[in-house]
Amino acid sequence: MSGQDIKSRPVYTPLARDPAGRAHLLIIDDAAPPAEAFAPGTSAADFPETWSVAAHSQALPAPLAGNGAQAFRSASHLIAMLRHRLARETMGLRLYAIGAEHFCWDVAACASAAGMGRDEFFLYAAGKPARRVVCVHCRTLNEGVSTNLITCTGCHARLFVRDHFSRLGNAFMGVQIDAEVPGETIEIEELSA
Amino acid sequence: MTIAFKPDETFRGDFRYANSPAAILRFPFPFDQDSYMYGINMEPHTRSTMGGAFAAAFDVDEHYVAECAERAAVLAADPGRCQVLPHMVEAEWDTLELIMESLSADYPEHFTLEREGDDWIWTNRPLSLHQRFRFGDPSSLPQSPFEYIARQAQGDFTLQDQRDGTLYMDGGIATTQADWSLSFDLGMTFHEWHGPVPLAHQKGVFDRALSYLMRVRYGHPARRLNWTMTVHPRLDTSPENYPVWGAGPHHFDGGQHRRDAAFAGRIADILPAAALERAAVLHPRLSCQHR
Prior knowledge:
heterodimer; A: 193 residues; alpha/beta; 2 domains; 5-stranded parallel beta sheet; 5-stranded mixed beta sheet; B: 291 residues; 4-stranded mixed beta sheet; 8 helices; 17% strand; disordered C terminus
């Protein structure tokens, strides 16, 4: 059931610097971004400030330091410090995020909360599909979903993963597949990136 | 005209619900075709002087009291059916003002609004409500202003914020929806929240509908007749409770779970569930709507 063609599903464009920006902050949820995350002729070196994740408890980044490279202890640490940073930012900053889809939309949520518009941040979901799926029936967030059918970890309903994405909730929608005919199912497929 | 309300109707369980002959006569749908497809069918909300469903800004019919009770029951079980983002607080008060002024003007025998500056008194006789409050002070009402007044109106409402060349659904109340989740769709653009609707995107329905809606002017409401069919008169056909109602007699609508069954029998034999989509309350952020 790939290709559901639902308009809320994000489409990601390889990143390039926005010429309208005053400052540029590239955020990666890993140590190094994949090459396909950048538009032709662009690389991580084009972004004067870069934040990444060291996955180490002794990392000591400086979120207010400006241009340069900072490595954070974890993705959660990075997101918390991004809120701290954006609360002190002024107009003209452009954010660029590369990483797992839910990480990219965590960055987007920080940007929105700080008053940035949709044309001031740019996302590129990279890596294997690992969706966050909210069970619309019981609200449980099911993490790391890579197939079109899952069993909800909360209410145990068999959920179809709809290509309907909530930017505010940072999750795809899971809907019980056999609510009308118990046991009804479809073939399990891997989700496409 | 005094409406004979039917407060004992139910929309679940024993499904005690029926339309009186008068309610059938005022039913606004012509149903002049044998098959239907998504359409844009928006039009200016021109008031009918002959009575009927188009006479008022917000229609009230014989099911009003029972539908308000059903809404209260849904909200008691799931408060997330009514949500408004913080930046829409002025739109909440605008909605309250618009509905109170409209109901009291269109149905003076049932609703009264008394205003002295910001000190307002609202009387809703069908629901036996008498509320003094201060306009602009949410602590003077038992719920947020939007929820307070939406609990006293039939049909679902959304609050839409116009920015970035589109409409964002930044608030709403949905207890009678055809399989869409307000909790999930809150904050989405017009095209995003209609994303799962089959066929209509390719037909350009939403591009044109959005263009029309963004041109709706203050004081010139628009309407669109919108219907679904259910075998029972169930109003809460939400995705949240789909495991509960999906197992029952099948629901026919334009949603994701529509069965490709031919509609057997005459449409007139099937009860309308949600009759009339109320005129959308539009709140452009830089609105000409000022007090």
